[in-house]
Structures are given as structure tokens and as C-alpha cells.
Write a sequence for this structure.
């Protein structure tokens, strides 16, 4: 006999799906810019920002219906994404500093994203600020999505998640970024994403309340 899903469980599942899609808005902004030629600034303003408020609304409603486990997952994913993004940036900076990978600067896309958002040159302060904010927005969003999908699963799921992120990046970035040294590009980004996934996986496994 199959186990019936209670209305409350269905509600929590629906909220989890909506929260996942809301967190994915930052990624959608990049895809819309690259493939649909929709200005990133427009997408973030009219889709990205409302998605942030929707996440807050979902968290508030989940607390009201005693679905604190969903709020916990979102909060743990948010914190894990923050620490993982710091680790992602630090390891890439370190590899570029001491390693043989000198043909690619992994931080250039951040400035390009900032230029798309502000309409200012990549060398401007405005583009740098906007680019770094968007970069961390992405990192937090991917953290939330991971926690909502995998919960307390083994941290190696996080490593696999990072590899999938790398593959997605390799499928998108060549459409807008000219890379002369493809080996350095792949090496630096792969190392960064593996570290991101490992840090995220360890943190979520340690602190999440659900599997």
C-alpha cells in the first residue's frame, strides 16, 4: 500500500519548489542576458528583486504553518553559500597567485556582469560593486538551492554539485567570454567549484535538519 502524502506535506513540498525557483532567479538573469538578450539590469529589477522578497515571504509563511524545517534549510543554505563563495574566491585567488595558471583571470567575468547591470565600463567602480554583489547573490542562491535539494546528505554530494556547476559554466561562458587559454580557464574554475561544493556540502551536512 502506498503511503499517502498529507496536505501539509504537499504544502511544504510546494513551498520548497517555489523557494528553489526563486533562488534560481539570479542564474536566470545571466541566462536571459546571454541567450535572450534581455538586459540583466531589467531582469534583476523585475524578477530578481521580487524573488528575494518572495523567499522572505515563504520563510515567514513556513514559520506560520510550523514548517520550520524548510526555514532551517533555507537559512543553512544561505550561510553555507556565503562561506562556500568566500572559499571559492580565496582558492581561485591563491591558485592564480602561486600556481602556473597565468593565462586567465577568473575574476574578469564579475566585472563584466557588473558592467551589464550598471551600463558602466568594466573598469568603473560601479561595475565592480554591482558585479561583486551579483557574484555573492549567485553564491548564496546556489547554496539555498543545494540545501533545499540535498539537505543533510553526505558532503560529497556538494562536490558533485560543484562539478555540475562547473559543467554549466563551461556551457554558458563561451557564448559571451573570449578565452585564449582554455586550459587555465577550465583548471581555475574547476578547482574553485570543487572547493565551493565541498565547503557547502560539509556545512549543510553538519547543520541542516532534514535529509
Amino acid at each position: 500500500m502506498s503511503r499517502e502524502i498529507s496536505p501539509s506535506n504537499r504544502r511544504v513540498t510546494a513551498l520548497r519548489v517555489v523557494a528553489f525557483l526563486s533562488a534560481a532567479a539570479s542564474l536566470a538573469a545571466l541566462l536571459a542576458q546571454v541567450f535572450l538578450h534581455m538586459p540583466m539590469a531589467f531582469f534583476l529589477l523585475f524578477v530578481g528583486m521580487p524573488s528575494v522578497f518572495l523567499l522572505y515571504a515563504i520563510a515567514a509563511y513556513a514559520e506560520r504553518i510550523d514548517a520550520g524545517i524548510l526555514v532551517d534549510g533555507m537559512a543553512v543554505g544561505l550561510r553555507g553559500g556565503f562561506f562556500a563563495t568566500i572559499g571559492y574566491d580565496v582558492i581561485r585567488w591563491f591558485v592564480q597567485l602561486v600556481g602556473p595558471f597565468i593565462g586567465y583571470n577568473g575574476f574578469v567575468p564579475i566585472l563584466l556582469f557588473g558592467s551589464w547591470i550598471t551600463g558602466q565600463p568594466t573598469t568603473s567602480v560601479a561595475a565592480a560593486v554591482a558585479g561583486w554583489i551579483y557574484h555573492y547573490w549567485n553564491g548564496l542562491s546556489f547554496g539555498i538551492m543545494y540545501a533545499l535539494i540535498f539537505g543533510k546528505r553526505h558532503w560529497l554530494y556538494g562536490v558533485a554539485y560543484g562539478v555540475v556547476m562547473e559543467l554549466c559554466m563551461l556551457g554558458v561562458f563561451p557564448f559571451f567570454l573570449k578565452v585564449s587559454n582554455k586550459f587555465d580557464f577550465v583548471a581555475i574554475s574547476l578547482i574553485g567549484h570543487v572547493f565551493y561544493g565541498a565547503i557547502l556540502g560539509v556545512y549543510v551536512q553538519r547543520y541542516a535538519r532534514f535529509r
